[in-house]
Design a protein that fits this description.
By secondary structure, the chain is mostly helical. 73% of the residues lie in helices and 0% in strands. Helix 3 runs antiparallel to helix 4, helix 4 runs parallel beside helix 6 and helix 5 packs antiparallel against helix 6. The N terminus is likely disordered.
Amino acid sequence: IYKRFVGVEYSFVTFPYLMRLAEAYQDTGDDRSAADLLEKALEAAKASYGPQNPRTALVLLDLSDSQSRLGAKAKAATLAKEALSILAPLFPPEHPLVREAKEKAGR
């Protein structure tokens, strides 16, 4: 119903719940389920906040972690580079998020 009226299946309303559930899956070691939910959270973040929003970058970093744990190192690095391209213009180089994205992009 929500998708029919709003035009997107996931939105800012569902975004925090997707993130919390993905975190719970990560905590239990179910990285495949976490990655699937983070893909949906990324879709929601891009649709709700825009592709250049820091919230979108945070999802990209979380998804990068999940992909890395699943063995998809190249995909993980690509996601981290995308997050870095969002964060670097907004924060100074010594900001923890920028440093984290640089570290993950280089793995």
